[in-house]
Amino acid sequence: MNRLLFGVLLLLLSPHVFAVPAIQQWTTNKGALVSFTQATEIPIVDVRVVFDAGAARDDGKAGLAALTNSLLSEGAGQLNADQIAERLDDVGAQLGSSSHRDMAVLSVRSLSDEKVLREAIGLTSLILSSPTFPERSFERKRKSMLVGLRASLQNPASIAEKAFMKAIYGSHPYASPPDGTVESLNAMSVDDVRQYYKKYYVASNAVIAIVGDISRNKAEALAEVLTGSLPAGEKAPALPGVEMIEGKMVRINHPSTQAHIWVGQPGMTRTDADYYALYVGNHTLGGSGLVSLLSDEVREKRGLAYSAYSYFSPMRMAGPFQMTLQTKSDYAVKALDVMRETTKNYLEGGITQEQLTASRQNITGGFALRLDSNKKLAEYLAMIGFYGLPLDYLNNFNSRIEAVTVEDVNDAFRRRVTPDKMVTIIVGPDTLPVAANSDNQEVTN
Fold it and tell me: What CA–CA distance (Å, rounded) separates 110 from 93?
C-alpha cells in the first residue's frame, strides 16, 4: 500500500495513535551514529549523512560551512563533477546537499537493487571521503555566493532576517550568517575549505539515517562503506550556551513601499523540557496560519498586514522565537502595536481550553502527513540522531502533544516569552514614524 494512503488510513482509524516502523540504532566502527528503519513498500533506499558542520562552526569565516558543503560533489578521487553526475544518472540515483546553522547534509536516494545501490553508495562514499575541491570550482562557487549575497542585501526580508539573528545572538556562533558576508567571502581561500573539511567531515562527527527496502545487515554494511574511508576524528566541541538579551529596536532604512518587521528573542532547544508546551501554545498564538491569534488580530480584523505569524526554531542551543509581519509602510507602527498587544494579552490571559483542544487536534491530525514518504522519514531519523532525541520520539509525538495542559502552556509561555526583552527589527523607508516604546532604538541606513 502506498505510504501516503497508509498514513491517512491509519490517521482516520486511530487519530491519537500513529505507529512508524521501529528505529534501530548503532555505531559504525569509525564512530558514526546510525539510525535505520526498514520500509519495504517501495524498492527505494534513502540515506542522509549529517555532520555537525553548519554555520555555527564558521569560526569567524562566515559562509565557510556552506561553501565547503557545496563543493563536495565538484570532484572526488579521479572523478570530476561531470563524471560524478553521469555515473549517478546512469543508475538513477539522486544526490543532494545542504548546509544550515547546526548541520551540513549530504543525501542520496537510490533504487534498492543491489548493483544499483552499491554504485550509488560507493560514489557517495567517494564524495564524502575524497573530495578534491578544485580551485576553479571553488572560485565559481564563491563568486556565485557573492552574487546571491549581494542580491539578498537588497531584499528587505533578507535584511531583516540577518539583522534579527545578529541582534538576538550577538557574538554567539548562531549569529554567523550561513551565506557569509562580502568581506568573509572575499577573504576566503580554497585552503580554508580544505582545513574545514578535514576538521569536521570525520566519522565521529557524523550521523547517518537510512530508510528503505534493505535488511539490517545490509544497512550495517552500507553505513560502513559510507564512513569506512573517513578518519575517525573527533566530535565537534559543544557550542556555548545562549544568553538572554536586552530588548531593543533596530530600524533599517530601505527604499521599499512595504515594511518588514521581526520581533523575538532566543527560544528553545530541540531537547527542551518545555518543547511540547511551547509548540502547542505557539500554534494558537501565531503558528496555525489564518486561524491563529496574530493573523486574526493583525490581518483579519484590521487588515494591517498581508501575513502575521510566529514560530519557534529549536536547535542544539536555544534557537530563535520570532514573530514576523509584512505590511504597507503606512501601517507598520499600528501593526507592530497590535502584534505586541496580542502577545501581551495572550501571556496575561493564557490559552483557553477550547484553543488548546483545537491546537492539539490540528497538530496531531496532520502529523501522519509529515511522514508520508521515506525521504521525510529519513529526515526525521537524522534529526533524532543528531539531537539525541529518544527513539520513541515519532511514535510518542502525538501522545505527548495530547498530554499538554492549559497549565503547561501558560506556565511555559510566561516563563519563556518575555516581551520586554525582545528585539524588534523594522526594515522600511526612512519616512516611517517613530514607533511606540522605542526608547532603546537604533537607526541604520
Answer: 5
